[in-house]
Amino acid sequence: xxxxxxxxxxxxxxxxxxxxxxxxxxxxxxxxxxxxxxxxxxxxxxxxxxxxxxxxxxxxxxxxxxxxxxxxxxxxxxxxxxxxxxxxxxxxxxxxxxxxxxxxxxxxxxxxxxxxxxxxxxxxxxxxxxxxxxxxxxxxxxxxxxxxxxxxxxxxxxxxxxxxxxxxxxxxxxxxxxxxxxxxxxxxxxxxxxxxxxxxxxxxxxxxxxxxxxxxxxxxxxxxxxxxxxxxxxxxxxxxxxxxxxxxxxxxxxxxxxxxxxxxxxxxxxxxxxxxxxxxxxxxxxxxxxxxxxxxxxxxxxxxxxxxxxxxxxxxxxxxxxxxxxxxxxxxxxxxxxxxxxxxxxxxxxxxxxxxxxxxxxxxxxxxxxxxxxxxxxxxxxxxxxxxxxxxxxxxxxxxxxxxxxxxxxxxxxxxxxxxxxxxxxxxxxxxxxxxxxxxxxxxxxxxxxxxxxxxxxxxxxxxxx
Length: 466
Prior knowledge:
Blueprint: E1 6-14, E2 16-19, H1 23-38, E3 47-50, H2 89-96, H3 99-104, H4 112-125, E4 130-131, E5 135-144, E6 147-156, E7 162-167, E8 169-172, E9 176-178, E10 190-192, H5 196-203, E11 211-215, H6 219-231, E12 236-240, H7 261-269, H8 272-282, H9 292-308, E13 313-316, E14 319-326, E15 331-337, E16 343-348, E17 350-353, E18 357-359, H10 363-366, E19 397-400, H11 405-408, H12 418-430
Helix pairs in contact: 1-12
């Protein structure tokens, strides 16, 4: 099979090309757009963001009715970077005509459905910077005289052609990928929690299910159990936990300082032993924990059912799923009681694994040819400004929004830092993206956006593929 033809416009070089357009790169697009509104023509930054999906979407499969955010609305896409931004959540409420109504709720935590609507609203504000339906397949170095000053970002076109965009800086924000236990594959009856609503929509069209099994002890697991129990009144919901029960999230004020922007500085500067200790201390702010209100609601339901003698919500604690076997009309879940070693099996209509997410390995996009450096444990070396350290011959910038927990701490994949991190990345790019001590001796970087004029900006930012 012959390779697809490529279309490259060598005269169009973007200052920034973003790979992926979830909340992280959306926040960067907003920061870039606000910078350009205030900047002189010669100081504007040209940018393009590429998103595989056809429209903006964020965890649509978990937009459960009534589920709330675990982060304050003030930690939106812009406010912590620019409190007067027109892209903040307060501006969204004002434009939607709900500001007073929201205030009257006396809450910091909107529903997930409302926050998704806010994200879509914000994405619409910077739609001129985005191309949806654009799956990035590779990022390749453009090397001249032994130095890489540009990258080519390859996108698979609908007609089979490869469309290539050139960039001085690439910001990768591919989000997280669902994680299933080893040996478990997703199917029509075996779901990751992130796909919950997509699959239950299909189930509602058939016969009423008799039993669901939900595996996991975190917020998503508890939300899935609550939703299935509420939505299917004749179905049994079995929650399998290796613990005695759900553990509450620590959202007390001092513990929440782990999510402060200043905490990133502390974490980044610490040695690996202190980093590990900080992560252990504050793991219960985010990992395998549940909002106390939800825990208490599930407990009330379970107890009320015991009183009635009609138990549908069953908490199978101190247990672990060891195997999943599908048949034509069911799925059999094998589990072990961790205390006694006793084996048991449950037949269910579906099993939901709320087993978390893993960051994408961004090096897969670069094919090993862009000089990305790793530490002794094989993890990417990342500077404080989120720029990946590279071979000295690479002068073009690679930034990552995700996969930096080992360097920047617990906020690596959380909404808490998206606004501040976007500002830090843009500031780094405006500074040229590479300090003098990262460049080969005797060289100067010539890829600062300060030399970009309005006439250099591509004309097709909001159009179709060239």
